[in-house]
Design a protein that fits this description.
The chain is of the alpha+beta class and 928 residues long. 24% of the residues lie in helices and 28% in strands. The strands form 10 sheets. It has a 17-stranded mixed β-sheet that branches. Helix 3 packs across helix 4 (202-221) and helix 12 packs across helix 15.
């Protein structure tokens, strides 16, 4: 967050490689060429489009882009910006100002060329610059140089004293910088045609990168705050107070995409979190939810303020916070140079920061004396500023983890019904004014506003949006039939008219016996809760005995550390129960992020092998309890629902041949938790030909690794990887059959990582299979599911969301690769977001209809829901497993126990191994 304009930091792209250089592959031993190495896998081509389903006409938020063929080139220059003393200039904000000043100063020398600059080391022009490989001098005014308002530097050894009147009266400061532009490569604009045709090559990726840099620069020149491909304006009407000194900020996402209908620009609403601008002390009071300075935890304050930018109330200079002073303002000393008489000599005196501002500068400080100073400048040469003179500047991204309440507010502000979103997107396209950008005009690109084919519009509000967006044809697939049992039972509480109503009984029910209730200081009527739970269990077909006991937490333990509270509760259980219970119902005082949750789950699942279900009984009614019982039944080995195609073994290409379905997810820490290990989870189907029962395996890995690294982990004659566990369990649970087919659903990877998935990760899976049996050659299919995209669909002439089962595989999809959008669920709130599925590799041989039907069916196979979910069940289960096991680390990381060891490191911090799950729960759906 050290950039001047609040632009989010991004990794610098690699330097371009000359097209004349051909890389050579070498082996590790001798460096010789290895021509026999297997060819690199690439995403497969589309086998055709689907035909099943009812035709439906839709609009999408992809806007048509007109491209006039251009024979010119983009010229790429490497940018080197230094101060006069050759120190490099960091921060995208100041670097953008330098390039803008360079363009103004040398406009004649550069033949009035327009620049597209990424804020780092790459600059692009249309056509070559007349002067290349040259160094230019740029002088900037009012650049923050690390001085205070009165040009004093509390904490530095060369601070000018109060007698330096001439420097104090200067209206501004100037900084001289050296800018070097060095030719790197040229990119043909004709490569835009490759993007449209879906041909992935170095030039097509580079030209797409240039177009995105142009979009970003266009927004930056309008004063927007940039986060990757989203931009946010400093407009209070776009802000929502999330509490804790954090604002939710609504902006827009825009990106170019090559599609079947040509080049389009995808525009969507985007949200981010920013720090509330204003006095620093107000932010700290709000962030820590205290009302007085005495209540502030200064260690937390230091972490919250680090790398934020401030300006002083005495001048317009900006500084980046590097920390807080070790002592309070009235105790923090620094050396101050003062002139001694008229001979020009200087004496060095030691003075406190407080006395310097109060006595030397005549500034009245009300409360800064008894609190730390803000430290700016450099770590080895800090400057100190009294906190009450500092204000946070606007549009700074908040990168720390949000609380549960803050996340709820952010989600709420992001919700927009389809008509509202259509109106907002249309306004965004108009105000963006992309057609005025000289760089886009130079390469023949304009956002089309011509009328497209009009459907029978029933409301005028759609006309303007429909005239610019892409019209697509979707299909609504028929929902798979669910095998169900019905019983007539009396429904209480929520039914308006009461009486007898039908209720679905569970397909395969468990028996709940040898169970108990534990209560961690929750205020509720436990007797009534147990009675209602048993009554609803009976209605669902679950045999549920009375609990063996109810364990209440000792009141003296309610404020103890979470691990001690859990240990104390288990001591009670050991004393009163004759053996280990089969099931524990745990009552927690908080619905989300309760500190007891992680230690409790670890104790039950890893140490004792006890199935457990947690709940926070704030509002308990029959519907809540019925949903709770579905989770309990699945965890104890039951089955809540079963698709008829499972029961009749009628799933194309899956039911006839032993097939294992894998769901893979790599879960990273929340923002602000960069040192937290990533959690790699693999869930696998069991009891083939079923596709509704899964088990999970989970490992930790370094957060620096982008791909899953623990799928295959040979250690001598053993394999400790995630895939081996899945394959062995499938063999045991499926009648000692090895899977002849492996279908892999991978979650959470970007398009730039597709080749790594089907090469690095798939290679690990193949090696895990060979490790078990050298003569075993199953067929593989790899599908990536993406939820983090910005494509939306809207019904023509209707304010409703698209119906569940909607699939789109034309016009806005990839020009050649096998992908489609699926909206399997019913969107009840906001605008539905489809899941984007990419079939990267397919040895099994699915046609488009069969693949889409399989994905649709798997969206109904989630045991916690009676209807479809937005993504296939294997991925949803993998995400749940990673999240639940990840809570094991919440208190283990803080303990930093060296006895657990590690298998990777983040800097000097060992990545802890997760404890193994107890054999009693290892194959259960504990994550459900």
């Amino acid at each position: 967050m050290g950039s001047h304009d609040g632009e989010a930091d991004e990794l610098s792209p690699p330097a371009p490689v000359s097209p004349n250089i051909v890389p050579m592959e070498t082996d590790d031993a001798g460096g010789e060429i290895t021509p026999n190495k297997p060819a690199k896998r690439v995403p497969i081509a589309r086998p055709g489009t689907g035909m099943k389903g009812k035709l439906i006409h839709l609009y999408s938020n992809h806007f048509k882009v007109s491209v006039n063929s251009a024979d010119d080139f983009f010229f790429h220059y490497h940018v080197d910006i230094k101060y006069e003393d050759d120190r490099p200039v960091h921060g995208k904000g100041i670097r953008r100002k330098v390039i803008d000043k360079l363009q103004q100063t040398y406009r004649y020398e550069f033949s009035d060329k327009d620049f597209a600059y990424d804020g780092e080391e790459s600059l692009f022009t249309t056509g070559a610059l007349p002067q290349v490989n040259s160094e230019c001098i740029v002088v900037l005014e009012d650049v923050s140089t690390g001085k205070t308002a009165a040009n004093a530097n509390p904490g530095g050894n060369d601070s000018p004293g109060g007698g330096d009147r001439k420097r104090v009266r200067r209206p501004y400061q100037t900084t001289t910088l050296k800018v070097g532009l060095y030719f790197a490569a040229k990119i043909p604009m004709s490569a835009i045609g490759k993007v449209i045709r879906g041909e992935e090559s170095e030039t097509s990726l580079e030209v797409l990168r240039v177009l995105h840099i142009i979009l970003r620069q266009h927004s930056a020149k309008q004063g927007c705050f940039l986060v990757r491909r989203s931009f946010f304006q400093n407009n209070p009407s776009n802000f929502v107070d999330l509490g804790g000194g954090v604002l939710g900020c609504r902006g827009f996402h825009s990106s170019f995409r090559g599609t079947q209908s040509g080049l389009s620009v995808n525009i969507d609403v985007s949200t981010t979190t920013i720090v509330k601008a204003g006095p620093v002390i107000d932010f700290l009071l709000s962030n820590q939810k205290v009302f007085h300075l005495e209540g502030i935890n200064w260690q937390k304050a230091k972490r919250a303020l680090k790398n934020l930018r401030i300006k002083t109330t005495l001048a317009n200079s900006e500084f980046k916070i590097i920390g807080l002073s070790d002592r309070n303002c009235n105790e923090q000393m620094f050396l101050l140079k003062q002139r001694n008489g008229s001979n020009g000599d200087c004496d060095t005196v030691e003075i406190t920061v407080y006395d310097y501002f109060v006595k030397n500068k005549g500034i009245k400080l009300r409360y800064s004396g008894d609190i730390p100073c803000i430290s700016v400048g450099k770590p080895k040469r800090p400057m100190y500023l009294p906190m009450e003179l500092c204000e946070l500047v606007p549009l700074q991204r908040y990168t720390k983890a949000l609380s549960t309440l803050q996340r709820a507010y952010l989600v709420q502000m992001s919700r927009q019904k389809p008509p509202e979103r259509m109106t907002v997107l249309n306004d965004a396209l108009q105000h963006s004014n992309y057609d005025s950008d000289p760089m886009l005009r130079a390469c023949g690109i304009s956002i089309s506003s011509n009328q497209v084919e009009q459907m029978a519009l029933q409301a005028p509000m759609y006309c303007e949006f429909a005239s610019k967006c892409t019209h697509v044809e979707g299909r609504v697939l028929q929902a798979p039939k669910v095998y169900e049992k019905l019983a007539m039972v009396k429904i209480s509480s929520l039914e308006m008219d009461g009486g007898i109503s039908p209720i679905r009984k569970l397909i395969q029910t468990c028996t709940v016996y040898k169970w108990a209730v534990v209560n961690f200081s929750t205020r509720c009527d436990i007797h009534n809760l147990i009675r209602d739970l048993i009554r609803n269990a009976s209605a669902k077909g679950i045999e549920m005995d009375q609990p063996a006991d109810v364990f209440e937490e000792n009141p003296s333990m309610s404020r103890a550390p979470a691990s001690r509270r859990v240990n104390d509760m288990f001591e009670q259980i050991k004393l009163k129960l004759p053996g280990v219970p089969k099931f524990l119902l745990c009552l927690l005082p908080e619905r989300k992020n309760c500190e007891v949750y992680g230690p409790w789950k670890r104790k039950c699942l890893a140490e004792f092998g006890i199935v457990t279900q947690c709940l926070a009984p704030t509002i308990v009614h029959d519907v809540y309890l019925l949903n709770l019982l579905m989770k309990i039944n699945a965890k104890l080995g039951g089955m809540n629902s079963l698709l008829q195609i499972e029961e009749s073994s009628a799933i194309p290409l899956v039911s006839k041949v032993p097939t294992i379905i894998l769901g893979m997810d790599l879960s990273r820490g929340h923002p602000g938790q960069s040192d937290r290990p990533s959690i790699a989870a693999v869930v696998s189907s069991r009891q083939w030909p079923l596709i509704s029962k899964y088990r999970a395996s989970v490992h930790t890995q370094s957060p620096r690794l982008e791909m899953m690294s623990s799928l295959f982990k040979p250690r001598g004659s053993e394999d400790d990887g995630l895939i081996r566990e899945a394959l062995v369990d499938f063999y045991i649970s499926s009648g000692k059959r090895k899977p002849d087919q492996v279908i892999i659903f991978r979650n959470g990877v970007s398009e730039s990582q597709f080749t790594q998935v089907i090469n690095m990760e798939l290679d690990q899976i193949i090696e895990a299979c060979k490790f078990l049996d050298e003569e075993w050659f199953p067929r593989f299919t790899v599908i990536v599911a993406q939820k983090n995209h910005h494509t939306k669909f809207f019904l023509t002439g209707s304010p409703d969301n698209v119906p569940p089962g909607t699939v789109v595989d034309n016009k806005i999809c990839h020009p050649s690769n096998f992908d489609f959008y699926m909206c399997a669920h019913a969107g009840m709130i906001g605008t539905s977001r489809p899941t984007h599925y990419h079939v990267l590799y397919d040895e099994i041989g699915f046609c488009a209809d069969d693949m889409q039907e399989l994905v649709h069916s798997l969206s109904y196979a989630y045991q916690r829901n009676t209807t479809a979910v937005s993504v296939v069940a294997p991925i949803r289960c993998a995400h749940l497993a990673a999240a639940q096991i990840g809570t094991f680390l919440n208190f283990e990381m803080s303990d930093a126990s060296s006895s657990q060891g590690g298998h990777a490191t983040v800097g000097n911090i060992p990545v802890p191994e997760l404890p193994c799950l107890h054999e009693m729960v290892r194959s259960s759906m504990f994550f459900c």
